[in-house]
Design brief:
The complex is a heterodimer. By secondary structure, chain A is an all-beta fold. Chain A is built from no helices and eleven strands. Chain A has one domain: Immunoglobulins (Immunoglobulin-like, Sandwich), CATH 2.60.40. The termini of chain A are far apart. Helix content of chain B is about 0%, strand content about 50%. Chain B has no helices and eleven strands. In chain B, strands 2, 4, 5, 6, 9, 10 and 11 form a seven-stranded mixed sheet that branches. In chain B, strands 1-3-8-7 form a four-stranded antiparallel sheet, with no helix packed on it. The interface between A and B is medium-sized, with 27 and 24 residues.
Chain lengths: ~110, ~120
């Protein structure tokens, strides 16, 4: 059983469309991170959110941390083929002593030209 | 190189054999982490090193798995008497310290296939 549930598991869209990926939990997290992973590579950190209700924007990507710090979303505007990849959310629980990252199962995003 | 490196990139082994996976962290990074990623799944934490000691090895799935780190640098993950369910990509990451302000940098992983 994973602490962080991501949805959808798979998303295929056309270039120019918008998409949203969700990351939900019944647990409270002190911080939450989003990563993108491409085939044959390790995950690369996109953003860290630490405050409930926080919204961060990174070019066409918008990240939101829920008010209760139990959920997060990633929204991509006008998706491009370069956005293709496995998107992973990962959180640090408030009860963890050294800040271990708990990962969701990931959302595979495919953007076709 | 400047990044985390792992070797081998691919390893095929027969059930019952032992394997060693190596991780070279970024120079100066005191924290090192091992994760396992099964097909289509997220990352499963295995073990965390701070320097040469492992404050958290709670993710190691069985006593067939062990890891060590020497000189505060290179780490080796050893799997004894491999089983088919050990097949996965093993990822290593390092960070300058531990905690939310320190980004974990991941290596490309070792894909282990047990036949």
């Amino acid at each position: 059983t994973q602490l962080l549930e991501q949805s959808p598991q798979f998303l295929s869209i056309q270039e120019g469309e918008n998409l949203t990926v969700y990351c939900n939990s019944s647990s409270v997290f002190s911080s939450l991170q989003w990563y993108r992973q491409e085939p044959g590579e390790g995950p690369v950190l996109l953003v860290t959110v630490v405050t409930g209700g926080e919204v961060k924007k990174l070019k066409r990507l918008t990240f939101q941390f829920g008010d209760a710090r139990k959920d997060s979303s990633l929204h991509i505007t006008a998706a491009q083929p370069g956005d293709t990849g496995l998107y992973l959310c990962a959180g640090r629980m408030t009860t963890d002593s050294w800040g271990k990252l708990q990962f969701g199962a990931g959302t595979q995003v495919v953007v076709t030209p | 190189g400047a990044g985390v490196s792992q070797s081998p990139s691919n390893k095929v082994t027969e059930k019952g054999k032992d394997v060693e996976l190596r991780c070279d962290p970024i120079s100066g990074h005191t924290a090192l982490y091992w994760y396992r990623q099964s097909l289509g799944q997220g990352l499963e934490f295995l073990i965390y090193f701070q320097g040469n000691s492992a404050p958290d090895k709670s993710g190691l799935p069985s006593d067939r798995f062990s890891a060590e780190r020497t000189g505060g640098s290179v780490s080796t993950l050893t799997i004894q008497r491999t089983q088919q369910e050990d097949s996965a990509v093993y990822l290593c990451a390092s960070s300058l310290g531990q905690g939310v302000i320190y980004e974990q940098y991941f290596g490309p992983g070792t894909r282990l296939t047990v036949t």
